[in-house]
Amino acid sequence: RFGWPPEAEPPKRLSAAQAATGIRPEATMEDARRLLKRIYGYEDFRPGQTRVLETLLSGRDTVGIMPTGGGKSICYQIPALLLPGTTLVISPLISLMKDQVDALASLGIPAACLNSSMSLRETNRVLREAAEGAYKLLYIAPERLESERFEPLLRSMEVPFVAIDEAHCVSQWGHDFRTSYLHIAGLIRRFERRPLVAAFTATATDDVREDIVRLLGLHDPQVHVTGFDRPNLSFTVMRGAQREKVLLRYADMHADQAGIVYCATRKEVEHVYKTLVSHGVPAGMYHAGMRDADREEAQDRFLRDDIRVMVATNAFGMGIDKSNVRYVIHWNMPKNMEAYYQEAGRAGRDGEPGECILMFQGQDILTQKFLIEQSTSHPERKANELRRLRQMADFCHTQQCLRRYILQYFGDPDAPEACGRCGNCNDNSETEDITVEAQQIFSCIRRMRERFGMTLVAQVLKGSANKRIAQLSLDKLPTYGLMRAKTEREIFDLIQLLVADGYLTLTEGQYPVVKLLPRAAGVLKGEERVVRKTRKVTRQRQAGDDVFEELRALRKSIADRDRIPPYVVFADSTLRDMAVRL
Ligand code: ADP
Ligand code: MG
Ligand code: ZN
């Protein structure tokens, strides 16, 4: 039941609009469904829309987080039609506002907008009609709220419901901050009767979500995250793959179809582009260092299917809507899951199958860390981005279902246990039971009171004779030396895997501390088993392997002689891969 108006008070005067829809304020989901069918011609709500509407119909403030195309508009248009008076919709996009008003008009729903592109005369007409209660929905650009002219008017209207679209604009963490969004909370507070408030966005990060609730002044809202699954997409992570081979195979497999290859740097865009062209693949490239005209031409040719593969940095794709992209390859790991999912999500917009392949290289983490260091000096922001980078790296290392990882990351409750069609679900490599090792690691972390980092935990389990361990008396722990038979590196890798698979977590900051997650408790109690997949594929020899092996042998012999491994300085940055392996 709708909580508005609080007392069962009949609307003062039935406006033309209300008479047209003839809806009582005590509306039910059945009423909502009937309206959906009658006005929009859709059979039913999407699962997430149902959850949002149920909350709104119960009269509770709501945050609806849904990806683009998820169907947010209906989540506020239907309640607007079910309620008396005029619903205010705050939206920052003028063009979108006009489209919606026109679309509503074609459905026979009276709506109007107020924004800075309108003449004074038009504005005055809308204001006059709005005061008379002529509209069911009034779209307002947030800047208009700053003008004192509007306030008395808005407050003289009967406003049962305020919907805020693109609500992430209120947050400085978002990519689209607008100061005018900060005026919304004040407006809502000044209504004589506080309207119901709903905020909608496609941005799902925690910090943005918290800002939305706080800065828009929502009252104990229910937050619904929903619709993030893209059932027609398949996801695969390849670690240490021979990237060129994989790329050329996909370009060949989809010879007449469109694909996008995302790279982290301009240099790599150029390299991948040249590789494709030299193999006769009609490719184009796109990055911020190109001339505007060249970039536009490349984009047009891609949209026209003149070129099939677009090699690009993350600058490509904003606002372009090409529906028949069959695959998206990430040549490098992106900086966070939001960026990854948005880019990968450009595959299969038409609902036909799309493949998303991420080719992870250990060096990607260093590259992204470097880019983060370069892009911001704000400590809080940096910590935030490093945390998200780690979650991205976990995605690259996890063994669990990739779709599940994505949906859990965004907080979408419709996550399956395992989708059965991602690279991890279909991985037919052998599995090894590591439950006992996991239990040893968890109990050691517990004994160490969850106060230390991965390296020290690994050293304690190894039984290292290290000064710090002695100082802290960690060598007195019963778990000291429990995994003596393994190398410290092996133990460290196991811990890392348990982090990636959601048994352990790392705290933020310069010295991350390993902590147990609830899932670990199940393992300690013997209720859950832990497995590790071991890939049987052996890596093929690459150019440079000989030099690498020689170098490693030399380094080892020096280390054996001097008891300290020597520093190795690489004079050429193209040898960075080798440095990481070493
Ligand atoms: P968003 O604002 O979340 O990006 P929109 O509100 O613009 O998404 O909706 C995207 C598309 O989905 C629109 O074409 C809309 O008509 C359609 N749509 C929304 N809800 C439903 C539904 N329940 N059934 C079928 N189509 C729907
Ligand atoms: Mg929208
Ligand atoms: Zn899966």
TrEMBL record:
Gene: recQ
Positions in coiled-coil regions: none
EC number(s) given by UniProt: 5.6.2.4
Cofactor(s) annotated in UniProt: Mg(2+); Zn(2+)
Domain of life: Bacteria
Taxonomic lineage: Bacteria, Bacillati, Bacillota, Bacilli, Bacillales
Catalytic reactions on record: Couples ATP hydrolysis with the unwinding of duplex DNA by translocating in the 3'-5' direction
UniProt domain Helicase ATP-binding: residue ranges: 53-222
Family, similarity comment: Belongs to the helicase family. RecQ subfamily.
Record-given protein name: DNA helicase RecQ
Source organism (scientific name): Paenibacillus thermoaerophilus
Keywords: ATP-binding, DNA damage, DNA recombination, DNA repair, DNA-binding, Helicase, Hydrolase, Isomerase, Metal-binding, Nucleotide-binding, Zinc
Enzyme kind, highest EC tier: isomerase
GO molecular function terms noted in the UniProt entry: helicase activity
Keyword Kinase appears in the UniProt entry: no
Domain Helicase C-terminal: 242-390
Keyword Nucleus: no
